[in-house]
Specification:
By secondary structure, the protein is an alpha+beta fold. It has a domain of 97 residues: Immunoglobulin-like (Sandwich), CATH 2.60.40. The chain contains three helices and eight strands; from the N terminus they run H-E-E-E-E-E-E-E-H-E-H. The strands form two sheets. Strands 2, 3, 5, 6 and 7 form a five-stranded antiparallel β-sheet that branches. Strands 4-1-8 form a three-stranded mixed β-sheet.
């Protein structure tokens, strides 16, 4: 009886380790071009992984392994001009597509699909110039 229990525990442990070692896929969709690269970082509270993937046909696939927590946070952006930085507009909003969703383990196991966001509202005046405009109208 003890032998059967030990064998069962070992079999379950092996199954859990195999599931944790299998690569998980996240597909980044909605890319406005295939130029540049997708730079990404994933954090699960204890560890982080990062890398770059090439876009193709409006999407990119990230494969990760070694995730054991219940959820992860993905930080990704489309570096279209290849400067390895998230470019910003004059008003401070992102000029390139980006996202930072929390992804549950169940979604990772099925293969998560995340859409990059490019629309951050209409371009407005830079914060400093808006503050100067307000100050000059108040003094009149």
């Amino acid at each position: 009886m003890k032998t059967r229990i030990v064998c069962l525990i070992l079999a379950l442990g092996t199954a859990v380790m195999a599931a944790a070692a299998e690569p998980l896929k996240i597909t980044i969709t909605g890319l406005r071009s295939d130029k540049g690269r997708i730079l990404w970082m994933i954090q699960d509270g204890k560890t982080q992984q990062h890398g770059m993937v090439e876009p193709a046909n409006g999407e990119s696939v990230i494969e990760i392994g070694g995730i054991c927590s219940d959820s992860v946070t993905l930080y990704a952006f489309h570096d279209e001009n290849g400067n390895y930085r998230l470019d910003r507009r004059d008003d401070g909003r992102p000029a390139e597509g980006c996202c930072s969703p929390a992804i549950r383990r169940e979604e990772l196991t099925r293969g998560a699909r995340i859409e990059l966001r490019y629309d951050f509202g209409p371009e407005s005046a830079a914060p400093e110039s808006a503050a100067r405009t307000t100050a000059s109208t108040e003094t009149k």
